[in-house]
Write a structure and sequence with these properties.
One of its GO terms (biological process) is heme export. By secondary structure, the protein is mainly alpha-helical. The chain is 76% helix and 0% strand.
Length: 397
């Protein structure tokens, strides 16, 4: 979380200005390098720290890519599906990260140092090999974008972005009140997930659960979230009601987080609703910030989520170190407070879906592109989003 912020904006620049191919390849290459460096754990533990640092640097390049790839390659009806699959691929990776350690490292290794060393090394080798297998085909086959734009908005955005820079994009986003409020709200729900998965093992260990049981429950939580995210994308594709979907996800997460009677069932439903916010947040950010680069809006959302998540973990970890049951209640109330704030922001914020308006206006213009001046007037964002100095006209389709 600490490394994410300083690396986030260079990763956004790489994805939006160099293209998704270079940004994604940088992320996967650094991930693979970091995993192999960790395999030197039995030589010196410092290699684990170096490898983990490289992994932290790599993370923003892949986390900020889903909406960018979707916009480059998919049309209006497929974008949400693509973003959901890409965002949930990150979640699947985390789920595998919960599951694989339980296959190698056993609870009894705590009492046998040599077995613990061997099992940990085997675990790190396995993960490094998997990452290498993924890197090779991506490096050979993955392209930045197709020869022709897949959607009306992508056709127009390639022209609208010609004179933009990362600095201008960020200033535009910070001035966009609606985007920033939803960014904070989405960041709150996302940070709930980050913080919850980070301190989850510590929370349930107070009730006597082992590390292996924590791994299994965490895996189920994340797998349920993948299903929830895909279903959310299906709903939004047919009915783009982002506000309703965001409020529903937050309320469902808020209510289910109160249950500790049936831990596994509660975690399944919690993951199902909470993790669906990721694909919703990325696409909502693009819709409200168009024509700003997709990686830029997603990167800012991820930055807010990481700041909130880091603050939550730093606040809750000392509380849970006392290992008393009432401390679990305190941490739960902190998490619920974050969700409640996000819920209020969702309720009282106006959702202005700029990209959707742009596409509808182009269709209503009998096949002709919209002038930049007319587009700015129709969405009333001249002072909130950057636009080129002179009027730009998208050519006839």
């Amino acid at each position: 979380m600490i490394a994410y912020l300083p690396v986030n904006f260079p990763s956004v620049f790489a994805l939006d200005k160099w293209g998704s191919r270079y940004g994604v390849l940088i992320g996967i290459f650094l991930t693979t390098l970091g995993l192999w460096l960790r395999c030197l754990i039995n030589q010196n533990f410092i290699w684990v720290i170096v490898g983990q640092t490289v992994l932290a640097v790599a993370q923003p390049f892949t986390y900020n890519a889903p909406a960018k790839i979707s916009a480059n390659w998919f049309g209006e009806k497929e974008r949400l599906y693509s973003t959901s699959v890409a965002a949930n691929a990150n979640t699947l990776g985390i789920a595998i990260g919960y599951f694989i350690p339980a296959l190698f490292v056993k609870d009894e290794d705590e009492f046998n140092v040599e077995d613990a060393k061997n099992h940990t090394w085997q675990l790190m080798m396995c993960v490094a090999i998997i990452s290498t297998i993924i890197l090779i085909p991506v490096a050979i086959t993955f392209k930045d974008k197709p020869p022709t734009p897949p959607s009306l908005s992508q056709q127009g955005s390639d022209i609208l972005k010609l004179d933009q820079s990362l600095k201008k994009d960020l200033i535009s986003l910070l001035k966009n009140k609606g985007f920033m409020l939803t960014c904070i709200a989405n960041g709150g729900v996302m940070s709930f997930s980050y913080a919850f998965t980070t301190v989850f093992a510590q929370m349930i260990s107070i009730y006597g659960f082992t590390a292996s049981q924590s791994s299994w429950i965490g895996t189920i939580y994340l797998l349920a979230g993948i299903v929830g995210g895909i279903l959310a994308s299906v709903y939004l594709t047919h009915k783009p009601k982002y506000k309703f979907c965001s409020i529903f996800i937050t309320i469902a997460t808020l209510g289910i987080s109160l249950s500790y009677d049936f831990l596994m069932v509660a975690c399944v439903f919690n993951g199902f609703f909470c993790l669906g916010i990721f694909s919703v947040a990325y696409e909502l950010g693009v819709e409200m910030s168009f024509p700003i680069g997709e990686a830029t809006s997603g990167g800012l959302t991820n930055s807010v989520a990481n700041v909130f998540g880091f603050a939550l973990v730093m606040a809750m970890t000392p509380i849970l170190e006392r290992a008393e049951k009432q401390d679990v209640l305190i941490t739960t109330l902190i998490l619920l407070g974050v969700l409640l704030i996000s819920l209020l922001l969702f309720i009282f914020t106006k959702f202005d879906l700029v990209r959707l308006k742009y596409e509808q206006d182009k269709l209503n213009n009998t096949g002709f592109g919209l002038s930049m001046d007319k587009f700015n007037q129709s969405i009333n964002l001249k002072d909130e989003n950057f636009s080129p100095n002179g009027p730009i006209v998208v050519e006839e389709i």
